[in-house]
Amino acid sequence: MEGKLPEHYFELVREAVAAEPAARRETKRRRTAAGVAVAAESAGSSRVASDDEAGTQTEDEYDSEDFEDVETEAEATGGISVTLAASRAKAARAKVVDSETRAFRRSFHMLHLAALLAHYHVRNTWLNDGKLQSRLAALVPDEVYASMHPERDEQLPLRSTRKLLDALRKCMKLWEKHCKRIVGLDGGLYMRPWERLAQRCTSGAGGMTRKAFNRALQKGAAMPRSVAQEGFVALLRGCGLNARLVVSLQPPDLTNMKPAAEARGADPPGDSDDDTDKYEFPLVWCEVWDRYSKAWITVDPLCKQLVEQVRNKSKLEPTGKFARFNQMRYVVGFDRKQGCRDITRRYCAQYNAKVRRRRITRDAQGAAWYDALLGALHQRKRMKTDDYEDEYFARRDEVEGIPNNLADLRNHPHYVLEKDLRQHEILRPGSEQCGFVRLKTTKRSAGSTLKVFKRTDVVPCYSGRYWFLQGRVLRKNCRAAKTVVVKDHRTGESEEERLYPESETEPYVPPPVAPDGTIPTNAFGNIDVYKPSMIPAGCVLIENPNAVRAAAFIGVPFAKAVTGFSFERGRTVKPKFSGVVVRSCHRDAVCAMIDGIEGIDDDARMQERELGALQSWALLLAQLRVKQRLIDRHGAVSEPSSDAASEPDASDTEAGGFFPDDSASPLPRSPPAPVPSEPILEPAAAPPQTAVELEDEFAQFMDELGSYSEHSPADDTDHEHESD
Question: How many Å apart are CA 50 and CA 404, to the nearest integer?
Fold first, then answer.
């Protein structure tokens, strides 16, 4: 064939192209980096199937003239169509608020939280009113009252708990009949978005006085739903039960970093006070202590009308669309003995994984503030019920288990991934995984699994310098657990730093005092005292700004104590000297000398203050003497009167809202008073002096003024008489 295909191959190609259906034609698209899509629709397959004889031939060996008669769809439609698609615009970056607005939202969140806690603390005090409790307890029949206090069943304690639950359900029905007139659903107490905070809430429960509060509960008058829920707590306390007021606080969302809507008057969709989805879950309910099962029983008398013992998940936790207005983040209980306790752990199934991130306690500073706030409202001693509740919360943490995604595992208080460890953290040698988390299957990676470890297996490692600041030193033959690359703040060069766990360190033992009483110091002549254990035996640390002066004045052996470092601008580190280290036998002498130095400094400051006051008085008296001498010699100078100049011109005043009448004759004005061209001087008693006399008088005045500051005013007076 001399390197060419036989003719019947080309006939087969023509027949295959003509007979191929349109549904089986391949469409190839090539997308470039610039976003240009080229769509090429070929009339047939781009490859020609050949037999074994032609399998070794290449495309260059084909004769292009043999394919001139092949008719393709591209020729029929006018050639290859090239479509230039518009380049995809980059996704707009999500808008977030600036740092100033973020700080304001955090402060407002804390302020709102403190105001709500103070409000319910006052309401809890109102519920302890004995008169109110006795009036409400009279609504409970005797048989129901007896069921609230069943005797303990030794054979089956759950029977006693069952009787208590039945009595609580009966009381719930009685209270529902008593509170028939529920006005308002407390829309203002539910969570509001940031753009609607300027609008006034529609809740009417906040403006009630204590007298109106008691009257509404006793008579069953019109009241908001939250007030009715609170009144049920007073009823149970009047019946002798340990009932606790439980509230779910709804400050604005702390994690919402989106800017507020520009149109503050328009409500976002599904965010109006008339939306019934907002009120499906209550904000106020109560708990009753069951002394038989050692647990709290949840009671919601009006909204959900349920009585439950929360095991793993509560029916009062809002989910789905209801969580837009009612996020269960802060659930606080107020008991009858003025106790205040955070019990969010009971009602949130995923407290550690999700709820903890939306609270102010997600960082150490916010947690300290929140604990201090609750501590200020907690006014009772610790009881056994608190111990039982702590045990229950610990079990709930174990039951919650490992989160099923990577986002919830990040910074989790109980579980950690190896890839989420910080630079100074390692896993304890020999630690085993406590579970796995499965990754989602994507195009790039199959569904792999990652090992999950307990947070207790994480060991912090630090450098030898850090351990020395903690009063510990490295042991002999210690091994570094980790090596990291850090940058030297002085030179800016990168260098390796070895990190050691606490197990590779030991407590620092300071060197003893020399026989002659000399205090041991470092290379700079100071002594490092970062922890109390670093003070040498038989010595004490005296922290006072005057300690160095006192010890040096007495002449006892001492050493300046470096208790820390201060970091200034330019990455400059300076040591902090807060006192001295002396022997214990010299402590009383140094302290007595410090008191004497402080007394001397106080006296010196007082003398300096008095001297400044005397100098000011001396200057004032000198000025008065000079003025009086000038008046006696040259006469007093009278200032020209400015009454005529200050009076407004009658022609320049405008009419009071009306046009002046031109025909009316102007008011007669008195002629202006003549302004004197020269100041009026009183007749001088002394004749005019010559230049020599004025010069001598000025020299005498300067001498008197210079000597006045060196003597008292009395001495100056005597000196004046002598000179006269």
Answer: 55
Q: For residue 680, is it within any domain?
A: no
pLDDT of residue 9: 60
For the domain that residue 386 is a member of, what is the CATH number? 3.90.260.10
- Would you say residue 502 lies in a domain? no
Instruction: Compute the Cα dihedral for 577, 583, 584, 586 and give only its sign.
Output: negative
Q: How far apart are CA 107 and CA 84, in angstroms?
A: 53
For residue 279, give the DSSP letter. G
Distances in Å between the alpha carbon of 715 and those of 620, 704, 721?
Answer: 16, 11, 10
Distance, in Å, from the CA atom of 337 to the CA atom of 340, rounded to the nearest integer, reads 9
Q: Is the dihedral of CA 597, 602, 605, 608 positive or negative?
A: negative
Burial class (CB in 10 A: 0-12, 13-18, 19+), 231: buried
d(CA 365, CA 342): 17
Q: Tell me: do 353 and 302 sit in the same domain.
A: yes
Final residue in a domain of this structure, among 556, 582, 604: 604
Note whether 72 and 120 are same-domain residues.
Answer: no
Same domain flag for 128 and 247: yes
Same domain? For 346 and 432 the reply is no
- Report the CATH number that the domain containing residue 553 is assigned in CATH: 3.30.70.2460
Residue type, 98: D
Q: What local confidence, expressed as pLDDT, does residue 123 receive?
A: 95
DSSP code, position 84: -
Q: In 3-state terms, what secondary structure has residue 300?
A: strand
* 99: CB partners within 8 A, 6+ apart: none
482 found inside a domain: no
* Number of domain units in the chain: 5
Q: Tell me if 670 sits within 8 A of 711, measured CB to CB.
A: no
pLDDT (0 to 100) of residue 201:
59
Q: Pick from 581, 568, 464, 462: which is nearest to 522 by CA?
A: 581
Angle between helices 157-178 and 225-238 (to 10 degrees): 130
Extract the residue ranges of the chain whose pLDDT is less than 50.
Answer: 1-2, 22-23, 25-87, 89, 262-266, 270, 644-646, 649-686, 689, 708-709, 711-724
Indicate if 393 and 420 belong to the same structural domain.
no
> Domain span at residue 697?
690-724
Number of H helices, E strands in the chain: 18, 23
Same domain, 13 and 39: yes
Instruction: From 44, 76, 108, give the residue that closes a domain.
Output: 76
Cα 260 to Cα 101, 198, 282, 298: the distances in Å are 10, 11, 27, 37
Residue 276: the pLDDT is: 67
Length of the chain measured in residues? 724
How far, in Å, are 354, 365, 395, 418, 663 from residue 410 at the CA level?
A: 11, 19, 22, 11, 92
Same domain, 231 and 346: yes
Q: Report which DSSP code applies to 703.
A: H
Cite the beta strand spans of 569-656 per DSSP E: 572-583, 637-638
pLDDT, residue 405, reads: 86
> Both 285 and 361 in a single domain?
yes
Nearest CA-CA partner of 601 in 560, 561, 544, 559: 544
Contact assessment for residue 213 and residue 227, using Cβ atoms and an 8 Å cutoff: yes
Per-residue pLDDT of 639-698, as tens digits, reads 665 554 445 544 444 444 444 444 444 444 444 444 444 444 444 444 554 555 555 665
664/674 Cα distance (integer angstroms): 29
CATH number of the CATH domain containing 453: 2.20.20.110
- Would residue 210 count as lying in a domain? yes
Q: Whole-angstrom Cα distance, residue 448 to residue 406?
A: 13
pLDDT, position 13: 67
Distance CA 696, CA 609 (A): 36
- Judged by DSSP in three states, 423 sits in coil
